[in-house]
Write a structure and sequence with these properties.
Blueprint lengths: L3 H7 L15 H16 L1 H14 L9 H14 L1 H12 L4 H9 L1 H18 L14
Length: 138
């Protein structure tokens, strides 16, 4: 029997710090119960995907200051629609049908939350995007 909704929820990590209460908006509730666990689950893939993004853009990221690296991440997620859509697809593909139905009625607000969560995650792990030894100047 296909038990995809339960299987998909079972593999998601728990996030004890995620606040849930009766006064929060539907979007915030969805963010804390669905989006945060999915983004945490997808973290290893997001890291590899962003490294590949850097490589495809001639590695200019590696020559930037920390502030400019943060701006680069933000621009990649907010202005490069192909990249942004690909990233959102990695999250949306982990939804149950019920979660997708909620998402589809609040797409704009939830897309902003997805992008912000991923931006925060990539920026907080910026040290993982150090220049590979093979690219460092001698």
């Amino acid at each position: 029997m296909n038990d995809r909704p339960n299987d998909i929820k079972r593999i998601r990590p728990e996030i004890p710090k995620a606040k849930i209460n009766d006064e929060m908006s539907l979007e915030e509730f969805f963010q804390n119960t669905t989006l945060r666990p999915i983004v945490k689950l997808q973290n290893p893939l997001l890291i590899v995907v962003f490294r590949n993004y850097i490589t495809k853009r001639k590695n200019v990221f590696y020559n930037l200051t920390i502030d400019k690296k943060q701006h680069y991440i933000e621009n990649a997620l907010q202005k490069d629609m192909n990249f942004s859509n690909s990233i959102k697809g990695m999250v949306i593909g982990q939804f149950t049908v019920e979660e997708y139905e909620t998402y589809s009625t609040h797409t704009s607000a939830l897309n902003k939350r997805i992008i912000n969560l991923i931006k925060e995650r990539l920026v907080s792990q910026i040290q993982l995007f150090e220049q590979p030894p093979s690219l460092k100047a001698s």
